[in-house]
Amino acid sequence: MDSIAVTKMIEHEETLINRLSVAPEQICHLAFGVDNHYARGMGITLFSILENNPDTFFHIHIFSTGLNDSIKQKLLALVARRSIAITLYIYQTGCFDNLPSIGRYAKTIYYRIFIPLLLKDTVTRVIYLDADMLCVGSLRPLMDLSLGSYTLCAVNDNKRARNTLCPELSLKSGNYFNSGFLYINIPVWKERRTTERLLDLIAAKGGYFRFPDQDALNLVLEKEVLLLPKKYNYIYDIIANKINHRPKIPADTVLIHYTGKCKPWHLWGSGPLADLYSTYYQRTPWQSVPLDSPVKHKEMKRYAYVLWLQKRYSYSLMWLIKYIKNKYFHIGAAK
Q1: Count of H helices and E strands in the chain?
Q2: 279-317 tens-digit pLDDT
Q3: 181 contacts: CB under 8 Å, gap ≥ 6
């Protein structure tokens, strides 16, 4: 892909903060692709990373179509006492219009495809993270990891996803990695024209994919990915588990990934891992921002059950009534 064309995708670049004064090899580069809606999740992810990696120097690269001033101020407050850099890259409006929209996935899923090309003159490796993750361990070992000739490192998705998607996509390796954690070898990515290959595939078959960019990444990079232990992307779907389910998280877990529609910043997303997320949430500049309330009848029903288990019976009954009105009479239904 033409370097000038890629550069023109960025409307402007903004340095929010840069307190780094260490050698380049001591810096761990992290990248996020978010809009205003997911910026809160990114903030909690970033806070958890800083809390569990106090001696690591980070340069945070945020790719977006725009973040409001309130979010920028919260990010600056979050890193007030850290030696850190945060750079914001604003994509041109409409630069993803030609890529397919699939289900509930916003166009932000495509941001990561262009990140390596946009950072190629700055760094040689970058860790891309989804904004619905929580760090509970050290990222330091990744900085010493040899990427060799691999285009990227990733972590296999859960067994259920692999059993479904490997046959569906004809992945002969039996592996299907989750794109929420990607450790990208930028020179190799560029040399192999990875962005171009992904875009060509998405243009040809993206409308048939369940997970457009993730499916494309797996098809294009099936033989070019180094699979890492699941501790770097421990996948947990809140809504797929009972509210009182107590998962056995391995002691060496580094990153917990809250996949699925229900997120830990949703009131109906209760459970031990949501409670763990809350312990970080409440220590960030977003602590005064209330968790999202239910708007669909299934969310209302689950939240009513959450409240019942918390012995908040009157509130539970109130939300149960809201659920009945929403489901059967379409009163207060989400638009």
Answers
A1: 12, 11
A2: 999 999 999 999 999 999 999 999 999 999 999 999 999
A3: 127, 128, 129, 130, 133, 154, 155, 232, 233, 255, 257
> What are the pLDDT digits (tens) for 207-232?
889 998 999 999 999 999 999 999 99
Rounded to the nearest integer, the mean pLDDT of the chain is: 94
The DSSP code sequence of 26-88 is GEEEEEEE--TTTHHHHHHHHHHHHHH-TT-EEEEEEEES---HHHHHHHHHHTTTS-EEEEE
- The helix-helix angle for 194-205 and 212-220 (nearest 10°) equals 120
Answer for the pair 129, 255: CB distance below 8 angstroms, yes or no: yes
Residue 322: count of CB within 10 angstroms of its CB: 18
* All domains in the chain, ordered by first residue: 3-232 (3.90.550.10), 293-335 (no CATH)
Read off the pLDDT of residues 73-132 as tens digits, 9 standing for 90 and up. Answer: 999 999 998 999 999 999 998 888 877 776 667 777 788 999 999 999 999 999 999 999
240 DSSP assignment: G
pLDDT per residue over 154-191, tens digit each?
A: 999 999 999 999 999 999 999 999 999 999 999 999 99
- Report pTM: 0.95
DSSP structural state of residue 231: G
What's the pLDDT at 258?
A: 97
Residue 182, classed as helix, strand or coil, is strand
Query: Nearest to residue 56, comparing CAs of 64, 48, 68?
Result: 48
Distance in angstroms (rounded) separating the CA atoms of residues 182 and 153: 6
Closest CA to 51 of 230, 289, 276: 276
In the chain, the amino acid numbered 330 is H
Comparing CA positions, the residue from 139, 128, 133, 129 lying closest to residue 256 is: 133
The SS3 of residue 134 is: strand
d(CA 235, CA 158): 7
Q: Show the tokens assigned to 143.
A: 């900085």
CA 195 to chain centre: 19
